[in-house]
Design the sequence.
């Protein structure tokens, strides 16, 4: 009797525990600032992209489009002053996975009408108060059916692909989804340890199958290019699998976030990886050193525009892929428009760069300097190089050529650890580069190739020799992983050289401020967490693209002036 009583008591406690158990913690959580804040930032982005010339008009067009989409009632039914959240419901099979979107509402009837305005039809479910069946515009994404349910506190749960209406007890409370310390406009938090192992395995197998399919498509196609692509299709999936499996075991959280700073015009995307303490991943991230660039000092006050980059060669697979493509470029020069006599020189340069990439040296720079006192510009390109002996030998052999040798001056300048040679790079360009080329860089401008113990530099323009020497002698210095900077005053003068009318449009859209401004910046920082942050200045980069759309000639002319 006593035994039966204890058994019943244990069973009752178990049932009570099951009834009061919290819903499973989601593996993926999304949160966003209130719609009012999002709209304010979007309007400001549109306004800043348009600038003084078109900003207000573009902002009005945005408002007009919003009104045309939502009608006179706009966001009625949706509480635009409270945050929004969502979470994934992940199962072993992809077709069983779903998404739950949690939205703040003002009134049930008004919110249903709001859904109608955004082309989501909600019909009351038979015999279930506060439950609606949803008819989505793209219901093929959620074939099992989706529902809408209202819960106390003014929240609506849209359960996508749940098949039958979800029991409200299984809803994750809004308070458990929102992180009040997260100030990002939108953020996505992934908890790798909560991901269903079978679902992840199926996804990784899918990546392998996709890569295998591309390899079959390439087949035994001749040439080095397909071979390099085959290397990427072999090594890429290995890299994805290795890091995915490590993250599931050793990463606490992976966070993606987007933010906007209206004061500076910076639109930022951020990736933060938080490892579990004491794991191999934690040690690896703690060892990530601040980034430096071999050519950081090449970007000076004379730069009209500059790109600094450090190739992300942190994994052997990436190094092998990069090296394979460098080798492919060298092998396929015979099919390029490059003059035949220059092909051995360029091939040795590409091979040296490939060796550097395989060794993990991926520093590079591209800088446009000017204008000088005569209004001309100089371009400098620098890349990390490994074992330069073959390249130097090819260059000295080229100097023996009866034709080109007359215009080559070996050892025109000495630099620490190498030499700068004058080379007729204008001979590479069809008909000397054309009128635009001469306006920007001068008629038959000086070309220079500098070969050092760990770098190769190519430059042309009136300051080519000195710029190449300075690049070869530059010392590594702290720098972002990627940084694109521009000086609008200097670029305006370049555009005006090609076409005065286009110069006027450029000045109107971009301004003529004489200062260097980052248009794009990517930083990497290790420590307790790995943080990768990419920032785009909407007052710069997108507006320059907008200028290109409004003018069919400005950037085409500049591009023609500098392209090989």
Sequence:
């Amino acid at each position: 009797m006593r035994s039966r009583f204890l058994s019943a008591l244990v069973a009752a406690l178990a049932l009570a525990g099951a009834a009061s158990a919290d819903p499973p913690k989601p593996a993926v959580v999304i949160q966003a600032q209130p719609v009012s804040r999002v709209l304010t930032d979007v309007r400001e982005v549109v306004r800043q992209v348009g600038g003084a010339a078109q900003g207000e008009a573009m902002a009005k067009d945005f408002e007009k489009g919003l009104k045309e989409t939502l009608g006179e009632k706009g966001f009625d039914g949706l509480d635009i002053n409270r945050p929004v959240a969502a979470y994934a419901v992940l199962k072993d099979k992809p077709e069983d996975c779903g998404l739950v979107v949690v939205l703040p509402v003002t009134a049930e009837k008004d919110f249903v009408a709001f859904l109608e305005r955004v082309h989501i039809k909600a019909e009351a479910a038979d015999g279930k108060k506060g439950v609606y069946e949803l008819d989505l515009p793209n219901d093929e994404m959620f074939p099992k059916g989706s529902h809408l349910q209202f819960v106390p506190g003014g929240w609506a749960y849209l359960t996508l692909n749940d098949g039958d209406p979800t029991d409200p007890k299984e809803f994750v409370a809004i308070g458990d989804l929102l992180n009040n310390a997260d100030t990002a406009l939108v953020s996505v938090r992934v908890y790798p340890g909560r991901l269903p192992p079978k679902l992840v395995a199926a996804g990784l197998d899918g990546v392998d199958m996709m890569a295998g399919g591309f390899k079959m498509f390439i087949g035994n196609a001749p040439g080095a290019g397909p071979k390099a692509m085959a290397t990427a299709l072999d090594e890429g999936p290995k890299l994805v699998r290795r890091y995915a499996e490590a993250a599931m075991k050793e990463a606490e959280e992976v966070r993606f976030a987007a933010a906007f700073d209206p004061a500076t015009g910076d639109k930022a995307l951020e990736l933060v990886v938080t490892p579990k303490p004491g794991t191999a991943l934690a040690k690896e991230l703690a060892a990530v050193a601040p980034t430096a660039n071999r050519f950081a000092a090449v970007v000076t006050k004379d730069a009209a525009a500059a790109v600094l980059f450090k190739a992300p060669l942190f994994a052997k697979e990436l190094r092998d892929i990069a090296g394979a493509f460098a080798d492919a470029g060298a092998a396929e020069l015979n099919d390029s428009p490059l003059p035949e006599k220059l092909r051995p020189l360029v091939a040795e340069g590409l091979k040296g760069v490939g060796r550097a990439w395989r060794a993990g040296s991926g520093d590079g720079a591209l800088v446009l300097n000017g204008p000088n006192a005569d209004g001309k510009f100089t371009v400098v390109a620098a890349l990390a190089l490994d074992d330069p002996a073959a390249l130097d030998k090819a260059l000295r052999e080229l100097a023996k050529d009866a034709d080109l040798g007359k215009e080559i001056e070996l050892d025109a300048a000495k630099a620490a650890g190498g030499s700068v040679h004058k080379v007729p790079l204008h001979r590479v360009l069809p008909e000397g580069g054309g009128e635009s080329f001469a306006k920007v860089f001068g008629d038959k401008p000086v070309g220079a190739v500098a070969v050092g113990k760990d770098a190769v530099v190519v430059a042309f323009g009136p300051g080519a020799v000195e710029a190449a020497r300075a690049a070869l002698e530059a010392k590594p210095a702290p720098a972002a992983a990627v940084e694109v900077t521009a000086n609008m005053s200097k670029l305006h003068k370049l555009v005006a050289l090609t076409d005065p009318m286009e110069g006027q449009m450029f000045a109107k859209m971009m301004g003529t401020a004489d200062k260097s401004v980052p248009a794009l910046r990517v930083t990497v920082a290790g420590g307790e967490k790995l943080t990768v942050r990419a920032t785009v200045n909407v007052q710069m980069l997108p507006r320059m693209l907008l200028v290109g759309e409004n003018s069919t000639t400005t950037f085409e002319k500049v591009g023609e002036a500098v392209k090989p």
Summary: The CA atoms of residues 545 and 555 lie 9 Å apart. DSSP finds 16 helices and 22 strands in the chain.
